[in-house]
Design goal:
Helices cover 26% and strands 26% of the residues.
Length: 206
C-alpha cells in the first residue's frame, strides 16, 4: 500500500484520535447515520451471538482463516438471513465479506468486515465489475494507526457501490491477506470506527 501523500495530515490526525478515543475503550461515540435512525456509532466488545454464528458459517466455505470481529458497532444485528449474512464464492475460497444489518433498517447500522488476497479484494470490494450501478472509487489516502498502515477508500453513494455503497472502507495487510472493515457513512467519526474495528481484527489475526 502506498505511503501517506501530501495533504493527508487530516487523516493522520484522524488515526491518532481513533487510538485515543475509540480503540482503547469498550464503547465509543462515533458518527451520526440519519438514514437508519442511528444517532451515533458506539463500538462494543460484546459480540452478538448472530455475529459468531455467521463467522462460523463463513469459515465452512473458505480456506483462509475467518477472523470474527472482536470490536463491533453496538445496537445488535438483525437475524434475518437476507440482511445479515456472508458473501463467499465457491471457486474463490480466499475471500469473504460478512455484512450485518444490510440496507436501511431503522435503529440499526449497516457494517461489513472481511478479508482476502489483494486480487480478490480488488475484484469484490474496489471494482465496479459486479455492481448494477457504476460509480467512482476514491482513494482517500493512508493513515498510520496502532503501528499499522491503513488505506481508506470512499465508495460511491447508493445505489452504486454494490454492498459497499455510501461507505468508506478501511483496509490493512496482514501477511498475504488484506483485511477490511466499514460502517455506513462518509464522516470522519465513521472513519474512526472503521479504523478501530480494522485494527482490532488485524491484531487478533497477527
Amino acid at each position: 500500500m502506498r505511503s501517506v501523500r501530501a495533504g493527508s495530515l487530516v487523516l493522520v490526525l484522524l488515526a491518532v484520535v481513533c487510538v485515543a478515543a475509540v480503540c482503547g475503550n469498550d464503547a465509543a461515540q462515533g458518527a451520526t447515520d440519519r438514514s437508519s435512525g442511528v444517532s451515533a456509532i458506539r463500538l462494543t466488545r460484546r459480540i452478538p451471538a448472530q455475529v459468531r454464528k455467521i463467522c462460523a458459517a463463513t469459515q465452512r466455505h473458505v480456506r483462509i482463516h475467518v477472523v470474527c470481529p472482536p470490536l463491533v458497532p453496538a445496537g445488535g444485528v438483525v437475524t434475518d438471513p437476507g440482511l445479515s449474512y456472508s458473501n463467499t464464492y465457491r471457486q474463490e475460497t480466499d475471500f469473504y465479506a460478512m455484512t450485518f444489518n444490510n440496507g436501511e433498517i431503522r435503529g440499526k447500522l449497516h457494517w461489513i468486515v472481511g478479508a482476502g488476497t489483494a486480487a480478490r479484494v480488488q475484484r469484490h470490494v474496489l471494482s465496479s465489475r459486479y455492481w448494477d450501478y457504476k460509480g467512482p472509487v476514491q482513494r482517500l489516502g493512508n493513515v498510520r494507526s496502532a503501528g499499522r498502515d491503513v488505506a481508506l477508500y470512499r465508495l460511491p453513494e447508493n445505489p452504486a457501490g454494490g454492498l459497499f455503497g455510501s461507505h468508506v472502507v478501511a483496509m490493512t495487510r496482514v501477511g498475504r491477506l488484506v483485511f477490511f472493515a466499514s460502517v455506513h457513512g462518509y464522516g470522519q467519526e465513521a472513519q474512526r470506527a472503521d479504523i478501530a474495528m480494522l485494527i482490532a481484527i488485524a491484531d487478533r489475526r497477527a
